[in-house]
């Protein structure tokens, strides 16, 4: 396949697209409860450190491969490996990345469908005056209703794939340019609202005044894993985006901007969520149910609670929508690289993801007792193994390819950071990022 002719229309469009891929459930759903379970501020500080030492260098490696190859992930890896005199089997890493994203998107679409249901419920005022027991029971009843789960899963996937089918400029770029500023506007609105609650000061102290007494090896490992997960590295999604990167754009500056925007979403979401949680005297370590049980309970007792809860679930829906759109792109790009038309590739990806997603949707009802591996149902498997094992495995191989296999001249050209910048990146990724990624992989395996 020849070099792609598509490019992002501007430097800003590329940064918003990569941020859109990174910002999603990891920032707004996963970060608050992982931080809650791991001590707040100490976890946050360690997480930010690992974003700098682990996330950004590997993100740059993934993007520069796509930028140097100017093709879909499989084709870019194959061409660059041939130029280096290495095995063309490296191209299968692109297929592995597409499979990883496929697995992630299958459960991601199901969970994102929950935000549609809860947005409608909060707009209708269904949580007003409801007791904690009633809200908890309502969530359990929703999960046990396969028809509702499938409807919302189907609706969310339809919203996602229609944008992908429109292409880079007309689909992804237009929507990112519209929704990402809206997402940040809603986040700022919620953060401003948080300042009016009685839990605001407690939330700030809990998030920004670290106590390292409770820091364990497990907390550090969770921070490393989250730094990896939240930047969407390891699945070749950013490699596909690197192929569309403008020639004049600085890769280091773009990667740093994405990391700052990504962390800021997690921080603003944390401030908004924990201010409400602490205002109601609730536990910040309530786990995955924090988003769909704890928050509705907390907001139901606050003035204008339905309005602010509606804003929050709209924010969650927008974040997951932009993320899903940007995660679907590398799968479509991989099939295009094999000669498929974009419309056909999009339809094939949509149908496949929808079918596998049904297994996750049924995991809370019909297939609740079907536990094929490690005593886990399908939803638990696809929501843990791809993020915890496949992503770091892919990231490790991507980092090794960029740091040790690619022709040096190609790396220097694609990185566009000057000799000093290149040497700093190469030293960091070879001797810091790759060992840390290996530790994240081991943690996932164990």
UniProtKB/TrEMBL annotation:
UniProt GO MF annotations: symporter activity
GO CC annotation, single: membrane
Bilayer topology term: Multi-pass membrane protein
Keyword annotations from UniProtKB, A to Z: Membrane, Symport, Transmembrane, Transmembrane helix, Transport
Transmembrane spans: 12-29, 41-65, 92-111, 149-169, 181-208, 220-244, 256-282, 302-324, 345-369, 389-407, 428-445
Cellular location(s): Membrane
Pfam families xrefs: SNF (PF00209)
Superkingdom, taxonomy of origin: Bacteria
Predominant place of localization: membrane
InterPro entries cross-referenced by the UniProt entry: Na/ntran_symport (IPR000175), SNS_sf (IPR037272), YocR/YhdH-like (IPR047218)
PROSITE patterns: NA_NEUROTRAN_SYMP_1, NA_NEUROTRAN_SYMP_3
Assigned protein family: Belongs to the sodium:neurotransmitter symporter (SNF) (TC 2.A.22) family.
Family annotation (PANTHER family): TRANSPORTER
Official protein name in the record: Transporter
Lineage, uppermost ranks: Bacteria, Pseudomonadati, Pseudomonadota, Gammaproteobacteria, Oceanospirillales
């Amino acid at each position: 396949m020849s070099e792609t002719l598509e490019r992002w229309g501007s430097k800003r469009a590329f940064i918003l697209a990569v941020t859109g891929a990174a910002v999603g459930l990891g920032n707004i759903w996963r970060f608050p409860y992982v931080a809650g379970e791991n001590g707040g501020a100490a976890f946050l500080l360690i997480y930010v450190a690992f974003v700098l030492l682990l996330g950004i260098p590997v993100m740059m490696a993934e993007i520069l491969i796509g930028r140097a190859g100017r093709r879909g992930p499989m084709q870019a890896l194959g061409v660059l490996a041939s130029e280096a005199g290495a095995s063309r089997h490296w191209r299968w890493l692109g297929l592995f990345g597409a499979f990883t994203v496929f697995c992630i998107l299958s459960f991601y679409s199901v969970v994102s469908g929950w935000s549609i249901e809860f947005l409608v419920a909060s707009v209708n005022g269904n949580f007003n005056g409801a007791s904690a027991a009633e809200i908890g029971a309502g969530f359990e009843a929703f999960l046990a209703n396969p028809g509702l789960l499938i409807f919302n899963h189907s609706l969310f996937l339809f919203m996602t794939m229609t944008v992908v089918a429109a292409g880079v400029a007309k689909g992804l770029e237009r929507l990112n340019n519209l929704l990402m500023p809206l997402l940040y506007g809603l986040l700022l609105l919620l953060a401003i609202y948080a300042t009016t609650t009685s839990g605001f000061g407690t939330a700030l102290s809990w998030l920004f005044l670290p106590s390292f007494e409770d820091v364990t090896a497990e907390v550090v490992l969770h921070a490393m894993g989250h730094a990896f997960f939240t930047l969407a590295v390891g699945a070749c999604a950013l490699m596909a985006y690197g192929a569309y990167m403008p020639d004049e754009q600085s890769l280091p500056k773009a990667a740093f901007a994405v990391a700052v925007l990504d962390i800021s979403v997690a921080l603003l979401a944390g401030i908004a969520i924990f201010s409400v949680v602490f205002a109601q005297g609730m536990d910040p370590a309530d786990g995955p149910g924090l988003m769909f049980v704890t928050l509705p309970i907390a907001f139901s007792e606050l003035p204008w609670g339905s309005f602010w809860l509606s804003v929050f679930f709209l924010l969650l829906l927008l974040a997951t929508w932009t993320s899903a759109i940007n995660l679907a792109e590398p799968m479509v790009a991989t099939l295009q690289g094999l000669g498929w038309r974009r419309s056909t590739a999009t339809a094939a990806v949509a149908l496949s993801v929808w079918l596998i997603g049904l297994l996750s949707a049924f995991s809370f009802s019909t297939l609740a007792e079907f536990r094929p591996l490690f005593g886990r149902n399908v939803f638990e498997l696809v929501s843990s193994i791809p993020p915890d094992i496949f992503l770091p495995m892919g990231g490790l191989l991507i980092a090794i390819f960029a740091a040790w296999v690619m022709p040096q001249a190609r790396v220097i050209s694609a990185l566009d950071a000057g000799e000093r910048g290149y040497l700093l990146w190469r030293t960091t990724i070879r001797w810091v990022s790759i060992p840390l990624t290996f530790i994240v992989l081991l943690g996932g395996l164990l």
